[in-house]
Design goal:
Strand content: 25-35%
Number of strands: 7
Number of domains: 1
Strand order of the largest sheet: 2-1-3-7-6-5-4
Helix content: 10-25%
Radius of gyration: 16 Å
Structural class: alpha+beta
Shape: globular
CATH topology: Beta Polymerase, domain 2
CATH architecture: 2-Layer Sandwich
Number of helices: 3
Order of helices and strands: EEEHHEEEEH
CATH superfamily: CorA soluble domain-like
CATH class: Alpha Beta
Length: 140
């Protein structure tokens, strides 16, 4: 699944690829991408996306690297943290001059919790909206 996000009115907003152009996307989130989705994201990013196997094999000393004018970082994030068998799974972040991509093959609890917490915090601030701002994810 691919999710696209753009900055509109200084806020990070989801894009609907069925009705909106994804050319303005600043963040592409890939969750269990199939071959076609991976190829589409690679065209938008202008760089390759590591496979699940490549992400799992990466040595601790190689989790942060630069290639083809992009920065790659792979981290192990908690998956199924509230369940009976929590585990860690690799998530790769790719930063190009125009976009950020996250590549994951499991729904990382930490990533989901961070987005939920940001939305809840924004809702509780006077004059704030739950959409957040680009600064909330470090896009400024």
């Amino acid at each position: 699944m691919l999710a696209f996000y753009a900055i509109r009115d200084e806020r990070l907003v989801p894009l609907d690829p069925k009705t909106e152009s994804v050319d303005d996307a600043v963040w592409i989130d890939l969750l269990n991408p199939n071959f076609e989705e991976e190829a589409h994201a690679e065209r938008l990013l202008g760089v390759g996306i590591p496979t699940r196997e490549e992400m799992a094999e990466i040595e601790v000393s190689s989790r942060l690297y630069s290639e083809d004018n992009a920065l790659y970082m792979t981290a192990l994030l908690l998956v199924n943290g509230q369940g009976p068998l929590p585990r860690s799974e690799p998530v790769t972040f790719i930063l190009t001059p125009k976009r950020l991509a996250s590549v994951r093959y499991a729904d990382a609890t930490l990533l989901r919790a961070s987005l939920w917490h940001r939305d809840a915090t924004k809702r509780n601030r006077p004059g704030s909206s739950a959409a957040g701002t680009a600064g909330d994810i470090g896009c400024t």
